[in-house]
Design brief:
This protein is of the alpha/beta class. The protein has a domain of 155 residues: Rossmann fold (3-Layer(aba) Sandwich). It contains twelve helices and ten strands. Helix 6 runs parallel beside helix 7. The protein is globular and about 55 Å long. Bound molecules: adenosine-5'-diphosphate and magnesium ion (MG). The site of adenosine-5'-diphosphate (ADP) has 14 residues, from helix 1 and helix 11.
Length: 272
């Protein structure tokens, strides 16, 4: 359903992805793991056509989206639900308007029908009667769940989750993981989740792909990844300081910190 073929992408002359290949099958839950700053969000944005590769192809249902114009891209994106890193709700809008955002924008559904659909989506994520609240009145975990409800509102064929459990406490993290797995199974959709949290990855994934040094270095079922002989995978899944991955690694934390002061502005731009 989703194929990244030999993707390369650089920013300001610095390669972030290089000859990356990844195939995601229809109906599967794929989790992409990797360190902060290694290019996970960049990979997701290529799948949505929010970023274009310098080289390579992105095929969705066999169609190369890298050459689509904005109008066709928007049409394609209707099939996608996305939970952005940090939920990215519109602060000035109510929960009803946030969850039903695309229904208000892109469909001619009546207000009554939108309210019904929003209530149904909120029900699926375990929230009821919060339609008139503003994001500021919600806890972190509730915001994530509102973001989840928004992601499923347009009956997407694919959902993309960017760090769904980052910034919530471990119990809420577990609730969100359960919800993602449950939504995946009941709605029978293809899902791609990006995370650096192995507990989440094991819980959510049919298959796990590890992004390292600009490409996918390992892919397999949670058991295969857990028992991998690859020293890079081993070090990452056990969260060990000892091993081939070092802090000077150009794919590591250091580079991501360099840019961190701008990251919220980037996210905002994407959201708008
Ligand atoms: N729009 C952009 N312009 C310039 N650099 C970017 C842009 N988006 C991401 N990057 C850089 O690409 C690298 C990978 O980022 P990202 O995919 O966000 O990492 P993560 O794996 O943590 O999601 C980082 O060094 C980041 O600063
Ligand atoms: Mg990211």
């Amino acid at each position: 359903m989703i194929e990244l073929k030999n993707i390369s992408r650089a920013f300001q002359g610095q390669a972030i992805l290089e000859n990356l290949d990844l195939t995601i099958n229809t109906g599967e839950s794929m989790v992409i793991i990797g360190r902060s700053g290694c290019g996970k969000s960049v990979t997701l944005k290529h799948i949505m056509g929010l970023l274009h590769p310098d080289k390579g192809k992105v095929l969705i249902d066999g169609r190369d989206i890298t050459s689509l114009n904005e109008k066709d891209l928007n049409k394609m994106r209707m099939n996608f639900g996305m939970l952005f890193q940090g939920a990215a709700l519109f602060d000035s809008l109510s929960v009803l308007e946030n969850v039903g955002f695309q229904l208000f924008e892109y469909t001619d559904m009546s207000l009554e029908d939108i309210k019904k659909r929003v209530a149904e989506c909120l029900g699926r994520v375990g929230l009821k009667g919060v339609e008139n609240k503003k994001p500021a009145q919600l806890s972190g975990g509730m915001k994530k769940r509102v973001g989840l409800a928004r992601a499923i509102c347009m009956f997407p064929k694919v959902i993309l989750f960017d760090e769904p459990t980052t910034g919530v406490d471990p119990i809420m993290g577990d609730v969100i993981d359960e919800l993602i797995r449950h939504l995946h199974e009941t709605l029978k959709i293809t899902s791609v989740t990006v995370t650096h949290d192995m507990k989440s990855a094991y819980k959510i994934a049919d298959r796990i792909a590890m992004l390292y040094d600009k490409k996918i270095v390992a892919i397999g079922t949670p058991d295969e990844i857990k028992n991998s002989d690859n020293p890079i995978v081993k070090q990452f899944v056990t969260g060990s300081a000892e091993g081939p991955i070092t802090d000077n690694d150009e794919n590591g934390e250091l580079r991501s910190k360099d840019n961190s002061s701008h990251s919220h502005i980037k996210n905002l731009k994407i959201e708008l």
